Amino acid sequence: MENICSDNFLKIFKTFENRLNSFFQGNTKILVGGDVRSPKNSIYYKYRKRIVSKSDTEIEISVFYDKENDDYVYYAYNMFFNNNKLMFHYEPTHKEHFQPHVNVYIDDKELENVVGEGFHIISHKYHPFEILDMTERYLG
Amino acid sequence: MFRSLIFRIKSLFQKEEKGVVIVEREEFAREVKEEFRGNMELLKAVEKGLNKYVRKEKYVSLTD
User: Fold this and answer.
1) I need a labelling partner for B38 at 20 to 30 A (CA). Which of A75, A125, A140, B48 fits?
2) Within a 10 A sphere around the Cβ of A74, how many other Cβ atoms?
3) Which residues in chain A touch residue B11, judged by CB atoms under 8 angstroms apart?
4) Cβ A39–B24 below 8 Å, yes or no?
5) Where in chain A are the domains?
């Protein structure tokens, strides 16, 4: 699987969207966002979208990309199942989120260990297509 | 160094592509500030990046 970089950012997200829409049988509704936003003379891209399928499954995508360093500044893919949520997250500037991981929320509350820290399930799966595979596996 | 030079040259030819909206840096800064309110580490990093290749008088602030 090719790595995401500034040269294929748009292509990857276009394909990601097509697959997501086709998974939701072309019947998704955009609640928020849509286009990639890029400021003039800048090293960034930003992309935000919240969609809902006809079966009322919501997915929230928030991606912030550094074109110069070909790395994310932030990403979060939230999949909502009623009051439960799977969150794929990466935020290298934050010391606790410096590597891709998954957070799990049940009944709106994050799963925590005995000392009250949120679980970070460390995962190498951070490419949009891998997250899509996971979406298909969970919701398919 | 070389990478950053290439990046700067490419930036000069930045054009609107399908599905991409080119926004003013000030507008982008406002959006980021709103979206990541309270996340100081991220805001500081983005502020640095946004001001990287612009003259000082064009700097935008995300942390004031």
Assistant:
1) A125
2) 24
3) 41-42
4) yes
5) 9-139
